Every structure is written in C-alpha cells, then in structure tokens.
Amino acid sequence: MRPLPKKEKQKKKSWKERQRQRQIKWQHSHEAYEIQREREAERKPRKWPKGKILGAFCLILLIFGAYGAWQYTQPSTTPPSINPTNPLQTPYEFAMNDIDGTKFSLASFKGRVIVIHIMGVGCHGQINPINDNQLTQLKTVCNSLCGHESVTLVTVAVATCPSSDLEQIRTAYGITWPLGNDYDDGTMDIAQKYASQGDGTIVLIDKTFHIIDSYTTITASTLSSKISQLL
Fold this sequence. Notes:
Layout: H1 15-43, H2 50-73, E1 95-97, E2 103-105, E3 113-121, H3 129-145, E4 151-159, H4 166-173, E5 179-181, H5 189-194, E6 202-205, E7 211-215, H6 220-230
Parallel strand pairs: 3-4, 4-5
Antiparallel strand pairs: 1-2, 3-6, 6-7
C-alpha cells in the first residue's frame, strides 16, 4: 500500500499580492455602495436645493404681482354708475353729437313727443340688463311710430372709455334714432339731470315741452299707449 502524500504547505502570499487583494476587495465594496445609493435615490422623491426653491417662490410672487398690477390698470368693463337724481319739472336743454358726428339739440325737437333714454356703457360695450330691455322696447316703439308720427327718441349713453363701442350697440339693437355719448365733453350733465330712476331711466316729454313722467322698466305697448295719448 502506497503511503498518502504529505500535505503540501500553503505557499505564503507576498505583500504585493495581499495589497492587490485588499484593493480589489475595496473596489467591489465601493461599487456595491454606489449601486445601493442609486437604488435609494430612485425610491426617494427628488428634492430641490433650497436656493432653487426660494428662487421659484420669488418668481411666483413676481408673476402674481405683475398680474395684479396689470388687472389694476385695465379699464373696468362695468358700466359707469348713474345715480338717481331729483325729477325735473321742466326739460333740461342740451346739445350733443350723434356717434356719426351729427350735432343735434333737444330744443330742435320742440313740438314733438320726446322720449329720452339714459344708458351706462362699459369700456368694451357692456350694458346692464335693464338697458337690454329698454333698447328692445324702444325699438318696437320706433318701428310703430318713428317716421310717420311726431315722435323723437334719443338715447344718451354714458361711456367713459374710448373703447366703448357704441356703433356695435347701435347695430346690435337696430337703433335708428339719435344716439350720443354724454361723456364726450368729460361731464355727465345730461345723465345727472334726467336719470331720476338711475341707469336705464326713460323720460317722456310732451309736445308742449313739459316732462310727463319717468320710468324704469316699461313695455313697448305701455309706452306706445302713453305716446299716443300725448299726440
């Protein structure tokens, strides 16, 4: 029987080999650490640096501030306020330009039944609902009486903005009677005299140039009946 070979003695590693093994071990460990960090970063929501957060907050404030300032400088679309005044006993005589530039005066309509309508207009042609009704009723009245009866309708608009499109209103409602802007001269003298019911007031003047009454809402049939009585 052959004897078992003697166990070979393990060769002792040199210092360089041990250093190289430690280096490889450290590199593997570092790579594993970096992979772990990347996985954790993917799971966590990304956070913005404090500087970027502060900058974004300031930018938002700037945008809202600029928008607020822009809104403040924009003209209001709400029709100007026309406050009620004391009823006139006798008509207040005035002269104004139609939106076509034709000048007319209230005195030139003496001897006719006159209907004056006061209407506030916003910066882009907006009118209050009451004037939507008044213009619709006045159009019906004018279709029946204008041109063959001694009746004159006048709409006095109060439009304080250059962008108030009175021409568009005239077209939309089919206005064939004089339409002018009380604020052309920078004052509201006509509206302040006649608006005894506020915005939308309709004033009825008889053929002897006396004020009969003023109305807020009135139907075309009622107004036509009153005009016919005065004729």
